[in-house]
Specification:
Shape: globular
Order of helices and strands: EHEHEEHHHHHEHEHEHE
Helix content: 25-40%
Number of strands: 8
Largest sheet: 8 strands, mixed
Structural class: alpha/beta
Radius of gyration: 18 Å
Length: 285
């Protein structure tokens, strides 16, 4: 089985619609794909309707969190999307995205970059607006050559010249909320140092004690040494190890299925989660 548990659609900051994403996942030879848009489940229904036969969908979301001033993301899988407490927290994060984006645009204008809200809104479309949409605007304007080049201290990285914070969930609260909604929780790309400061291992140990299920080890932003270190940490803490592409369509160069999760780990995630079940494809619309 080929299992990719971390992808994004146009419901947040990917470039494939949810329907396109599941069709592309099947074409890439995946057996299981996780749809984990940022702080939203809005793409799930479309993905399920279009799900090709032979592909299973794991519903989820990537939750924006912060601990001790360090931004981090938590992948929540197979939770009840209508559970009130978790739904309310996701809406708080999502509702703060527009004023945050407008704040970044103001800072960029002050730096002499002629980006506009209309441009960023066009790029975001129906998705939850985020930094990658602002970064894409910078690419369109020729300010940076690629989206990843916008995530530096010069521009949009944490603490960068045009960075603006938003409401982010305490990760211990995120674990409590996801577990309360019947889901499983995996810390996304914990060693992605090029994105900014990373969470120390001591904090990951505390999160493990609080109910964290796993850490995403095999990821494009982790070099071999980082993967080996995180694999050892997971073993020490009794955490599951996942791998995934973090696919964003054309917004990133990584392909669907570039990194995958072991079937036994996938089975354990589905065993632990009780809020929803993986959805088998029946041919799609």
């Amino acid at each position: 089985m080929r299992i990719d548990l971390h992808t994004h659609s146009t419901a947040s900051d990917g470039t494939d619609t949810p329907a396109e994403l599941v069709r592309n996942a099947a074409a890439a030879g995946l057996d299981v794909v996780g749809l984990t848009d940022h702080d939203t489940t809005r793409g799930h229904a479309e993905a399920i309707e279009a799900l090709p036969e032979g592909l299973t969908l794991v519903t989820g979301a990537e939750l924006s969190c912060r601990i001790d001033g360090i931004g981090m993301h938590m992948l929540a899988y197979l939770f009840d999307a209508e559970e009130p407490a978790l739904l309310a927290e996701r809406e708080l994060v999502r509702d703060d995205r527009v004023p945050r984006a407008k704040g970044m645009i103001t800072k960029l204008n002050e730096l002499g970059v002629p980006v506009t809200w209309e441009q960023v809104a066009r790029i975001a479309g129906e998705g939850s607006v985020g930094r990658p949409h602002v970064a894409t605007a910078l690419v369109e304007l020729g300010v940076v050559p690629s989206v990843s080049d916008a995530f530096t201290q010069d521009w949009l990285a944490d603490g960068g010249r045009a960075y603006v914070g938003k409401h982010e969930t305490d990760p211990f609260e995120a674990i409590r909320l996801v577990k309360g909604a019947g889901g499983a929780v995996v810390f996304a790309h914990p060693g992605a140092a090029k994105r900014g400061r990373t969470v120390p291992e001591s904090a990951i140990a505390e999160l493990a004690a609080a109910g964290l299920d796993g850490i995403e080890v095999d990821h494009m932003d982790h070099d071999p040494d980082t993967r080996a270190r995180l694999r050892g940490l997971a073993k020490e803490l009794g955490l599951l190890v996942t791998g995934s592409s973090d696919y964003h369509g054309s917004r990133k160069t990584v392909a669907l299925g570039a990194y995958t999760t072991d079937p036994e780990v996938y089975g354990e995630i589905t065993r632990r989660a009780t809020g929803a079940f993986p959805v088998p494809g029946t041919g799609g619309a």
